[in-house]
Design a protein that fits this description.
With about 425 residues, this protein is α/β, with parallel strands linked by helices. The protein has 16 helices and 10 strands.
Length: about 425
């Protein structure tokens, strides 16, 4: 049995190569069908995300065409995408057997992600496995491997907390809001600006389910578009003052050359608000709100440097989980690979045992029928059924024992003692 992980990621290849090899949702089934047709008897899972495109393959040297090889698989991928194999070969990274298992576990645990600890990859691994199952492209090896990868990915997160604490300015800003307010159903959020940072922040804010979202921008068209996208209401920029009075949370993201809100203006806003708690997240550079606004009573003002410092603190906290995560993955990957190898060896032994039993039943049945020519076809079928049931009942305990045994650390070099015992007791050949 062999397992291969072949692909590109943000470390090994430029964006253009990853885009050329990417597999869209509508292409998964067709890509897997092409691989199955070209490499019969093998198992495949395709994992395609923004930052990686990887093909996981498994096969046994006993299947037609042998175990999966890098060269033919590379050519198949290139042909499917209509690109030259030599154009992508230099960027492809291949990992084999135990190394491939460890790599998949690190991917599922987000240690190989562009953003350490990001949460999307576990779902993407799960979906890739589900799509391969739907296409009939996986068998016992990759089914077991991907189920273990999902389990290990969750275990790493639970044990290390690597997914805690956001790393982007926009997501940290929303975390701050969540820390300040218990509920958001009765809160009004005002976003000043309609650029990329505003869009990212609105994406995170929407998850808080605020009562109202207001969007204002110097371009009424852009404000309308942003508000419509996120279920908010556009406010003309010349109505900024009443919008500030309404807002419990203000996120400002403009590219103005100087502050657009002075302290004396916001002091009037707070008086109109009857001094209710206000949170201002000024993530504009240069700043949109005068720094002294933070001195006002019941006003919490965070600028981009404050949020960046929190993001950096979160990043360092996640990095502290790398070594514990790697220790978990190393142990789990070794155990998984041993189990996969043990399953293959056990499966081969059980097939030999079954074949031996079938031969004996067939031989004895033929001899019995030859001595009793009066037996009808129905007699022969009944006797064969009874013999088969007897043999299956006799062999069930050793089969169950072999399947339930814990594999040794090195299943290749030191197969489980039960394998030797079964081979010896039933006169089976090694291997």
């Amino acid at each position: 049995m062999k397992v291969l992980a072949l692909g590109v990621d943000h470390r090994s290849s430029p964006t253009a190569v990853r885009e050329a090899l990417a597999v869209g949702d509508r292409e998964y089934a067709r890509a897997l069908a092409a691989l199955k047709a070209e490499f019969p008897g093998h198992e495949f899972v395709l994992l395609s995300t923004c930052n990686r495109v990887e093909l996981y393959a498994a096969g046994d040297g006993e299947v037609e065409g042998g175990a999966p090889e890098v060269g033919p698989l590379t050519e198949a991928l290139a042909r499917f995408h209509g690109v030259r194999a030599d154009a992508v070969l230099a960027h492809l990274v291949d990992r084999h057997d135990a190394e491939a298992v460890g790599h998949l576990f690190r991917v599922a645990a987000s240690l190989e992600s562009l953003v350490l600890g990001e949460g999307q990859i576990l779902g993407q691994v799960k979906e890739a496995h589900r799509a391969a199952q739907a296409a009939g492209a996986v068998g016992p090896t990759l089914n077991a491997l991907f189920q273990q990868a999902l389990r290990v990915g969750k275990k790493v997160r639970e044990a290390t907390g690597m997914d805690r604490g956001k790393l982007s300015i926009a997501s940290v800003a929303v975390d701050v809001a969540r820390d300040v307010f218990d509920t958001f159903g009765d809160k009004t959020v005002l976003v000043i600006g309609a650029g990329k940072m505003a869009d990212l922040t609105l994406r995170h804010l929407k998850g808080l389910r605020p009562g109202r979202i207001l969007v204002t921008n110097r371009s009424p068209e852009r404000a309308e578009a942003a508000a419509a996208k996120w279920g908010g209401r556009a406010v003309p920029i010349d109505e900024l003052y009443p919008a500030l009075v309404e807002a419990d949370v203000v996120v400002s993201t403009t590219a103005a050359e100087r502050p657009i809100v002075a302290k004396d203006l916001y002091a009037r806003v707070q008086r109109a608000r009857r001094n209710r708690l206000a949170l201002i997240l000024d993530i504009a550079v240069p700043r949109d709100f005068e720094a002294s606004i933070g001195d006002l009573d019941q006003v919490l003002l965070y600028n981009v440097d404050d949020l960046r410092a929190q993001a950096e603190q979160n990043r360092k906290a996640r990095e502290q989980g790398i070594d514990p995560a790697l220790a978990i993955i190393e142990a789990e990957a070794a155990a998984c690979w041993s189990e996969l190898r043990h399953r293959r060896l056990a499966g081969a032994t059980l097939r030999q045992l079954g074949d031996r039993a079938d031969d004996i039943v067939r031989r004895e049945l033929d001899a019995l029928v030859a001595r009793n020519p009066h037996f009808t076809d129905a007699d022969r079928a009944a006797i064969a059924h009874a013999l088969g049931r007897a043999v299956n009942q006799l062999l069930h305990p050793p089969r169950a024992a072999l399947r339930s045994t814990t594999p040794p650390a090195d299943a290749d070099a030191h197969p489980h003692s039960l394998l030797h015992a079964l081979r010896h007791l039933f006169g089976l050949a090694d291997g």
